[in-house]
Design brief:
Elements (H helix, E strand, L loop, with lengths): L1 H17 L4 E8 L3 E8 L5 H5 L2 H7 L6 E5 L2 E7 L6 E2 H7 L9 E5 L4 E4 L9 E4 L6 H15 L5 E6 L23 H21 L5 E6 L2 H23 L4 E7 L4 H4 L2 H5 L2 E4 L5 H8 L14 E6 L2 E9 L2 H13 L16 E3 L1
Parallel strand pairs: 5-14, 7-15, 8-11, 8-12, 9-10, 10-11
Antiparallel strand pairs: 1-2, 2-4, 3-4, 6-7, 6-14, 12-13, 13-14
Helix pairs in contact: 6-7
């Protein structure tokens, strides 16, 4: 592999030199999903100039895509590995010691550090996961929900799962932390959400926010379209008042545009997780920022998390159907155990929020 990396580094330098950009590769990082080549550039080299060469660099390396990445003042060229490895959330949760409460595991950042999202943070509130078919957004939602259950007792976290198509989040069926079995029926969805709005108002009146309730929704746009004005009103009210009452929405959608999701998106989703999209315009709409590079993501768990205007690239966590069923069975068998999982080697965590 070292010989191949050296050849690719030489190829990158040749492409840059052909455009009169004096540069050399000074090192690199190999992760589960990507190879990143770190560059030393002359002072007058421009980031926009490098980004304009991304397609040419990818072609020279026979790679499907190439991203130009800026990190703490340094620039790197990143390409996907030919055979990326999956990030096992079951494994990550099992290796964590005292994991932060109410923080689902997202996956691994570019430095190989477990990435968690603090739902209790005022900067998080609600999360929108978007991307095309095959981007891995539903798989990520399953991994997040399961990690919450693995790392938190029922007295701290409860889950409400809404699955309009009836199969995306089905692996969570039987999880002890579920308030009800996954819901796919539209009238039942409205009934449960109306109840939850009432619960939010009750909590507000007595000043409590526990246990945290995480509401996972697959295909948010479809749900709003089928439910009409009543669904949009109920969802909007839940999001506007839910944060202070400890109720958080984690929603998946293919098309995160205001025409599809209405006024919900801009005001109520301060955290965006974006998988592969089809164009720079879609990337800008999905992330809420310009120049994120989301249009060059490779799908199958390749994500950018955007919080407070900053993007963090990460490899999304994954749980197979068999692993999910086994873990649900294990959690049900240990129902009397009301403490978070603990073991481990004390991993250093990258916690957002």
């Amino acid at each position: 592999m070292r010989e191949q990396l050296d050849l690719q580094a030489n190829q990158i330098e040749m492409v840059l030199a052909s455009h009169r950009i004096n540069s050399c590769v000074i090192g690199g990082t190999v992760t589960l999903r990507t190879v990143r080549f770190h560059l030393a550039l002359r002072m007058d080299a421009r980031l926009a100039q490098l980004k304009g060469l991304s397609e040419e660099i990818a072609l020279s390396l026979d790679a499907p895509a190439c991203r130009v990445v800026g990190d703490n003042g340094a620039l790197s060229i990143e390409i996907p590995r030919a055979e990326p490895s999956k990030v096992s959330v079951i494994d990550l949760c099992g290796r964590m010691g005292a994991a932060p409460p109410c923080s689902p595991v997202l996956g691994l950042d570019d430095h190989g550090t477990p990435l968690l999202l603090n739902l209790n943070s005022p900067d998080v509130a609600h999360v929108l996961i978007s991307g095309t078919t095959g981007s891995g957004k539903t798989a990520l939602a399953v991994a997040m929900a399961l990690s919450l259950a693995m790392l938190n007792p029922q007295r701290s976290v409860q889950l409400l799962v809404i699955d309009p198509k009836g199969h995306g989040l089905g692996y969570l069926t039987g999880l002890p932390h579920l308030m009800w079995p996954p819901i796919s029926d539209l009238p039942e969805t409205l009934e449960r959400l109306r109840w939850l709005v009432g619960e939010v108002e009750r909590r507000d009146s007595v000043g409590i926010g526990q246990p945290l309730i995480a509401v996972f929704v697959d295909e948010l746009a479809d749900l709003l379209m089928m439910g009409g004005k009543e669904m949009e009103f109920t969802m909007t009210r839940l999001m506007q008042r839910g944060r202070e009452a400890g109720v958080h929405l984690i929603a998946c959608t293919q098309k995160p545009t205001t025409t599809v999701i209405g006024s919900l998106i801009k005001a109520n989703f301060p955290v965006r997780i974006v998988g592969s999209v089809t164009s720079p315009d879609e990337a800008r709409v999905a992330t809420g920022i310009s120049g994120s590079g989301a249009e060059r993501l490779q799908g199958r768990g390749d994500f950018i998390l955007v919080s407070k205007g900053r993007g963090t690239h990460f490899a999304g966590g994954y749980v197979s159907g068999e692993e999910a069923r086994d873990e649900v069975a294990r959690l049900r068998a240990s129902l009397r155990q009301q403490t978070p999982l603990a073991s481990g080697n004390g991993l250093v965590l990258h916690r957002v929020g």
